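Good morning,

Attaching, inline, the backbone tokens for the sequence recovery test we're adding to the shared suite. The designed sequence is right after.
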């Protein structure tokens, strides 16, 4: 990978691959993926390679293949494959000579470019420039353009390009084939319908050809195959004369809010009209609109400037913002963010706690209205969460560990990777017993409210989420005769290397936090908002919930520091066997422990997959003093393999808090490298969404020191050694603040209103209505 391709205005905006290697196709397919939160496309190349993974996903179009599988985002028909025959030889980089090669993604406007000079077997030197984008301005639309010039003589070119519905999710075909048709002699359209959820997906495409700035019409034939419709074009490419091929595609579905009430016929007609309009406007005009949307929505709305000796730092925060945008369905609150965004089949498009704990803070501080929509999704999932609680014998709302369509409920698969000892698939217990997600959602709801002051959200959705989740915990607690306390037994905490454990510190503390929140809100609502209180009481019986919570909360067991000042991760962790973890700490690929042990054996070792007690100390930071935090750091970090991409960023922020500054920077760099770095095998199954949110947290919450504590804004920065300055903007309770940090001072400027706000920094409160300068 190459990171310094961009110069001038594009410095630190370009991610570049300067060497094509068929062993590492997955890396750039993922990290250079394009999208807009509605549509997400892996950047597989135009010509096909064995080992490629060609994916087009449309958010929310979940389908369940059969009763033995869980629902997943189906891989829709592909439009990006285009094959070229040059004087009878297939254009392919493993044949002929590749004289020069470069592929780069411009994060600023979301355009992907590939420039190749290729010499065919018959010695013809052809310069190809491939470009494509998915519009951020019109989410249904994408453009693709190929410019070809032959440097030494004329060649005959055959181009095969169309819509290919033969795509599968690793062999699973999610669609019944609908009609394929040609409209107006050059618009192709294919309809596919998901087999179980019955969603129609309509893909429409058309091509133009230009030579010397004028449209031309090459010889063309329309071909149809099973689940495939395409054109075959033929033309003569004359020496040094450029031919420009442009392909426009329009994606629409019967699930789209704007088409929900329309008949399929109408959606199809509309799609044809849209593609004709797009063609009239042309590639350049369309990408300009998209570039403007990138500028308005992201780069001018919440810019982050890092003045670092290591230019990679600036690039990596932009890379995170780019990917968070393309993975987030801004357009529809019935959808959420998949753990791999829309960039791969990994985790099937499902949503985890990754959203609330890792990605949501970015949205709360940078785009609060989008954060609200993401939480509204959880509200819409309440019926599934209530159903899950009931099915498990509990009350209230027990949120699914993995979530898909709002009414689906729990969708975690049951069988996973190979167990090297038994030779069978390992059972995935998360869907049954990884329950902390319920408290994580309540925590995020509270965090959103504290930072935005959005009372309307709370009244419509938030309070209900908090009461129903608290009620779940109260019904979930188990009384022990032995100590006469209430326990949470048989769970998985954030550290998924420990299954069926009792009193996981993270789960218990977060559950109590959730319960306390409900108690506080009950008391507040009863006093301040009689009308809402009565409404909620009628709907979910908050009086009874409160009564139970008040009884229970005093008796919940919360692990306290042991003789060494360390909070035990769970009831048995400290008594488990220690092994030499150094080979695994130095591993090249995550999960190397499983080459020797199976999960059952790992369960009996003092080894953690990811931050567990330590993430608790970050989220509920006021509950623990610095000594306990340091003790826990010293105990758990050496036992943590960071086998989940969620781990490094949490450790980095906590290291910043604990004054372990160079370590904090080191961990941030490792987190930033997970996808963007030079390890070419990390991203095959898709992007690590939570880690990208985590990278943002390292910068803003870690080095920038931004924190919401007890409803107040605290800013206590500490820049890494090699950073001179950090500037960013955040929203705080409806106000927009620009924060400009230097080595020994920082300035906070209020961007629009005259209202006074207060921030806390290094023990002092600063009240201001325009700007404040703090030396540190
Ligand atoms: C992690 C979970 C995470 C999931 C999806 C797992 O490997 O252990 O914490 O939610 O991946 O990213």
């Amino acid at each position: 990978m190459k990171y310094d391709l961009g110069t001038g205005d594009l410095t630190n905006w370009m991610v570049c691959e300067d060497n094509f290697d068929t062993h590492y196709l997955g890396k750039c397919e993922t990290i250079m993926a394009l999208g807009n939160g509605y549509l997400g496309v892996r950047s597989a190349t135009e010509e096909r390679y064995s080992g490629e993974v060609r994916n087009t996903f449309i958010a929310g179009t979940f389908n369940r293949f059969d009763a033995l599988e869980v629902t997943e985002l189906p891989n829709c028909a592909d439009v990006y494959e285009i094959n070229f025959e040059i004087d009878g030889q297939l254009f392919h980089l493993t044949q002929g000579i590749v004289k020069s090669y470069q592929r780069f993604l411009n994060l600023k406007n979301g355009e992907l470019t590939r420039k190749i000079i290729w010499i065919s077997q018959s010695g013809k030197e052809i310069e190809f420039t491939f470009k494509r984008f998915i519009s951020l301005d019109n989410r249904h639309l994408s453009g693709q353009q190929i410019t070809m010039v032959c440097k030494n003589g004329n060649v005959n070119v055959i181009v095969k390009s169309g819509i290919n519905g033969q795509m599968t999710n690793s062999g699973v075909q999610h669609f019944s084939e609908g009609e394929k048709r040609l409209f107006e002699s050059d618009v192709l359209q294919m309809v596919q319908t998901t087999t179980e959820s019955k969603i129609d997906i309509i893909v429409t495409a058309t091509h133009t050809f230009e030579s010397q700035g004028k449209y031309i019409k090459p010889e063309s034939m329309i071909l149809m195959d099973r689940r495939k419709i395409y054109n075959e074009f033929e033309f003569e490419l004359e020496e040094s004369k450029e031919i420009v091929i442009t392909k426009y595609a329009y994606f629409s579905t019967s699930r789209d809010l704007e088409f929900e009430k329309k008949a399929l016929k109408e959606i199809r007609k509309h799609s044809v009209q849209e593609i004709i309009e797009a063609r009239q406007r042309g590639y350049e005009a369309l990408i300009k609109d998209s570039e403007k949307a990138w500028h308005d929505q992201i780069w001018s709305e919440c810019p982050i400037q890092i003045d670092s000796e290591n230019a990679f730092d600036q690039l990596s925060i932009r890379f995170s913002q780019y990917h968070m945008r393309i993975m987030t369905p801004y357009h529809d609150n019935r959808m959420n963010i998949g753990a791999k965004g829309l960039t791969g089949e990994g985790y099937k498009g499902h949503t985890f706690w990754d959203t609330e704990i890792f990605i949501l803070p970015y949205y709360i501080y940078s785009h609060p209205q989008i954060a609200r929509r993401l939480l509204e999704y959880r509200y819409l999932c309440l019926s599934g969460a209530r159903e899950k609680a009931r099915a498990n014998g509990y009350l209230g709302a027990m949120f699914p560990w993995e979530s898909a369509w709002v009414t689906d409920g729990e969708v975690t698969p049951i069988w996973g990777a190979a167990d090297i000892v038994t030779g069978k698939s390992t059972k995935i217990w998360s869907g049954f017993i990884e329950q902390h997600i319920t408290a994580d959602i309540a925590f995020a709801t509270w965090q959103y409210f504290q930072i935005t002051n959005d009372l309307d959200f709370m009244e419509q959705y938030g309070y209900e989420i908090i009461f129903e989740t608290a009620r779940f915990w109260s019904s979930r607690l188990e009384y022990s005769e032995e100590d006469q306390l209430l326990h949470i037994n048989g769970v998985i905490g954030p550290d998924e290397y420990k299954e069926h454990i009792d009193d996981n510190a993270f789960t218990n503390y977060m559950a109590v936090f959730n319960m306390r929140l409900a108690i506080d809100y009950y008391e507040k609502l009863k006093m301040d908002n009689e009308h809402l209180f009565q409404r909620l009481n009628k709907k979910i019986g908050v009086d009874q919930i409160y009564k139970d919570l008040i009884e229970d909360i005093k008796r919940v067991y919360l692990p306290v520091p042991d003789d060494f000042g360390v909070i035990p991760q769970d009831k048995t962790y400290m008594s488990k066997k220690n092994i030499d973890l150094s080979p695994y700490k130095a591993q090249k690929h995550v999960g190397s422990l499983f080459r020797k042990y199976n999960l059952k054996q790992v369960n009996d070792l003092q080894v953690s997959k990811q931050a567990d007690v330590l993430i608790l100390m970050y989220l509920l930071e006021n509950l623990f003093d610095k000594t306990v935090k340091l003790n826990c750091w010293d105990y758990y970090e050496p036992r943590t393999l960071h086998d989940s991409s969620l781990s490094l960023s949490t450790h980095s922020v906590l290291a910043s808090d604990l004054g372990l500054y160079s370590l904090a920077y080191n961990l941030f760099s490792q987190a930033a490298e997970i996808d963007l770095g030079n390890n070419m095998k990390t991203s095959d199954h898709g992007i690590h969404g939570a880690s990208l949110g985590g990278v943002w947290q390292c910068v803003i919450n870690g080095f920038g020191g931004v924190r919401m504590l007890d409803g107040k804004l605290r800013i206590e920065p500490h820049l890494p050694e090699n950073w001179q300055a950090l500037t960013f903007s955040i929203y705080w309770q409806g106000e927009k603040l620009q924060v400009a940090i230097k080595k020994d001072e920082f300035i906070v400027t209020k961007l629009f209103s005259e209202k006074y706000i207060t921030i806390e920094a290094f023990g002092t409160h600063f009240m201001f209505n325009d700007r404040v300068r703090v030396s540190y």
